User: What shape does this take?
Amino acid sequence: MNTKSLIVAIASMGLAASSFAQGTIAFANNASSLVTTNNQQGNIGNSTTGFGTKIQLFYQVKTGTVAPAALDATSALAGTPVNGWIQMPGSASSVGTPLAGRFGPTSVTTGNDVAPAGSVWLQAVAWNGGSTTAANASATATYAGVSGIWSQGTGDGAAVPAVSSAGLFGGIVLIPVPEPSTIALAGLGAASLLLFRRK
Assistant: This one.
């Protein structure tokens, strides 16, 4: 084998190895970044979310300094996330263990499109109702919400970077998910208004 062929072979093996690389992320929050439920009952206000609520990360590979468009909770829970977001593989983390509104620390691993020591945009989705992943939660969730977007470096499995709650994850407020019948009524109302305007 000549030198040129050897270099091409080594480069090909390197590319193949990198395509199977995965970044890791440590995921947790603290008392200043809780997951809470908006009760919307008079003056009750927000309450800390206890056992039974789940939270899951969605990610995009970071290629610039401008954050992508935000993830929509409704589409994420229906299994059709938009704006380029990808659900983190595996099951969601539980909120309320060990304390209400708290989760983690837990380590999650991205897909093969994120290299170790890479960088990603992250957004979290939380919901109630018991589904183990966001992609099948729309049938059971009555409350849901999304976090803000933050940028996070990924680890290599040996040195996993921690998520700083104060500087990155800022908490989530869960709000009621409209029932299908409510959405249908709203659609009928909008259609009737359009017909009325045309007449």
